[in-house]
Design a protein that fits this description.
Largest sheet: 6 strands, mixed
Order of helices and strands: EEEHEHEHHEEEHHEEEEEEHEHEHHH
Domain Calcineurin-like phosphoesterase: 1-212
CATH superfamily of the largest domain: Metallo-dependent phosphatases
Subunit structure: Heterodimer of SbcC and SbcD.
CATH architecture of the largest domain: 4-Layer Sandwich
Family: Belongs to the SbcD family.
Structural class: alpha/beta
Pfam families: Metallophos, SbcD_C
Strand content: 15-25%
Organism: Secundilactobacillus hailunensis
Helix content: 25-40%
Strand order of the largest sheet: 6-5-4-1-12-13
Shape: globular
């Protein structure tokens, strides 16, 4: 059988406030095209379909459309699990009738022990879980850490192995020895938050999600697919795409297929004058998402606004010699920041931390809270 391995779609995510909907739709379109060209027998989605546990309506509609396109229109079986960014409860809605169209979506640990039986392969779908879930399932309070929990999980899975078939595992965890970027949420629940590599040894292939780089783990039988879109500057050098997994061969053969972004993510280190001089240079892609590090020593007036005329998608701006109050995110000086209203400051802070803007409802709540605080101050 031939399967396509993808993960970490993070539908609804933003890049320093920039909407990535078009980038994510473009990546999906290429994934669908690769699946058709390779004539795969199904798609593996190894968790983090959504970026938030409470996704917006637009994100839910986008995921629904994508799954329907692959499963109902293209008639491709889907083998998916929930990740640490997903709400397992919300993602599980509708699963009782999904199997009628060969859409398998596992969101609970108990589902991991019943393999999906394919002609030459047993496919174990293990959703992201915390050690407490393993405690409950095995009724064993001695399970405290992720490595202990995963060992029990694998041992239970192996009791269901069919020796005449290959064994594939789909999981969403940090595997010991993997490399990370700053766009990934570290899993620290339960103390020791890494799965030892030796627990993966008995599987012919392990399709992993959670880390966003395809080269994060170097094992002959296990791969992270990586995210199909770059979600931070730390991913700028990564090559995005999907793995094609061929179980007809021994050992299982994996081939990487690249995805080309609409707008790339790049880091640039240069002087202000050199950057402005590229305005008419057709060899420079000014529409990319860029993190700019200026080599200038002197403050530059209105630097962000001037650079945005050339590079409209600047995500960060800094100086090569470190922090400078004249060169900040959004190009604001300390004096300009002090002149901002509390609501504007809150909006800026929220966008830098959450990577998205306040919603109208959140703004309404914040204004109400600020009003109450002001009234309390006046009464005091």
């Amino acid at each position: 059988m031939k399967l396509l391995h993808t993960a970490d779609w993070h539908i609804g995510r933003r890049l320093h406030g920039f909407d990535l909907t078009d980038e994510q739709q473009n990546a999906f379109d290429q994934i669908e095209q690769i699946a058709k060209q390779e004539q795969v027998d199904g798609l593996i989605i190894a968790g983090d379909v959504y970026d938030r546990r409470l996704p917006r309506e637009a994100s839910v509609a986008m995921v629904n459309q994508m799954l329907q396109q692959l499963n109902l229109t293209d008639h491709l079986p889907i083998y998916a699990i929930s990740g640490n960014h997903d709400s397992a409860t919300r993602l599980a809605t509708g699963t009782p009738w999904f199997k009628a169209t060969n859409l398998y979506l596992h969101t609970d640990l108990s589902q991991a022990f019943t393999p999906i039986e394919l002609p030459d392969t047993q496919l174990f779908l293990c959703p992201y879980f915390e050690p407490f879930a393993a405690q409950q399932y095995f009724n064993d309070d001695t399970i405290q850490h992720l490595d202990q929990a995963f060992e029990r999980v694998v041992t239970e899975m192996e009791t269901h192995f069919d020796s005449s078939k290959k064994h594939l595992l789909v999981a969403h965890f940090f595997v010991a020895g993997s490399s990370t970027t700053d766009s990934e949420t570290n899993l620290t629940v339960g103390g020791l938050a890494a799965v030892p590599t030796d627990l993966l040894a008995d599987f012919d292939y392990v399709a992993l999600g959670h880390l966003h780089g395809k080269d994060a783990l170097q094992l002959p039988n296990a791969r992270y697919s990586g995210s199909p879109v770059k979600f931070s500057l730390s991913e700028a050098s990564q090559k995005k795409g999907v793995w094609i997994v061929d179980t007809d061969q021994t050992p299982v053969k994996v081939t990487f297929k690249s995805i080309t972004p609409i707008h790339d993510v790049r880091q640039i280190t240069s002087s202000f004058e050199e950057l402005m001089a590229t305005a008419d240079d057709i060899t420079v892609n000014h529409e990319d998402y860029v993190g700019i590090t200026l080599t200038d020593k002197q403050p530059i007036p209105n630097v962000m606004a001037r650079l945005r005329e050339i590079f409209p998608r600047i995500v960060t701006l800094g100086r090569a010699d470190g922090f400078d109050p004249q060169v900040r995110y959004h190009g604001e000086t300390s004096q300009q920041i002090r002149q901002k209203s509390p609501m504007d400051l809150l909006g800026d802070f929220y966008e830098q931390v959450a990577k998205e803007r306040l919603t109208p409802q959140q703004e309404k709540w914040a204004k109400a809270a600020l009003k109450r605080a002001n009234e309390s101050g006046e009464q005091a």
